[in-house]
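Hi P.,

Sorry for the delay on this. The queue was packed all week, but I finally got your sequence through. Input first:
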Amino acid sequence: MDSALLKHLLDNLSDGYFPRLLTDAFAACVLMYCIYLPNNNRNREYLLTFLMFNLVIFHIAFLLNKTEMSLGAAFGLFAVFGLLRYRTEDIPMKEMTYLFLAIALGLVTAVARGQGEAAGVCGVLLAATFLLDSGRISRKELHKDLRYEQIEMIKPEHRARLLQDLRERTGLDIHFVAIQNIDFVRDIANLRVFYHEHQTTKPPQATGNKSS
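Then the structure:
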C-alpha cells in the first residue's frame, strides 16, 4: 500500500479511533474469555457471533458519531442490528443477554466522550456481569427437561415424594418441578426440574428418567 494513501487513511481515522478500538477489544475479550466461557461450560458456539456483533456495532457507532443525522434515524439503524434474530434456530435467553452486552460495549466505547468514561462504564458492566453469572451473589439456578414414567407421582399430594425420587435418580438438588405436558396413552409426563449448580452431589443416573 502506498505510504501517502496509508497516511491519509490514518488521518481519517483520527479522533481516538485506535484507543477506542483497543478499549472495546479488551472489554469484549474480558466479557467472552473471562466471564462467558468459564461460566457456561466452555460453550463456543456463539463466540464468533458475539465478537463480530461487537466489532460491527463499534464501527457503525463510531462513524455515526462523526456524522450529523437525526436521533430517530440513528436509533432505527441500531434497532435493525440490535434486534436481529437468526431464522435457523432460536438463541437462548442467556446468550441473547451476552449478545446485548457485546453490542452495548461496542456502542459505549464508540460514543463515549472520553477514554476514562468508556473504560469506567465498561468496567461497571463487566463487574456486574461477572458477579451475577459466577454465582457469587446468588446461587446459579439451572434446569433440565425430563421424561418421567411414574405418572401417578405427578399428583399435587405426591409432590414431596416426586422431588425426593427425582433427587435420588439424578443426583441433583432439585427444589422445584414444573409439569409441561402429560401423555396418558404412554403414561409419561414431561417435566422441567430446577436445581442449583454448585449443590450437585453426583452425576445424573439413567435409571428411568431420560433427558429430552
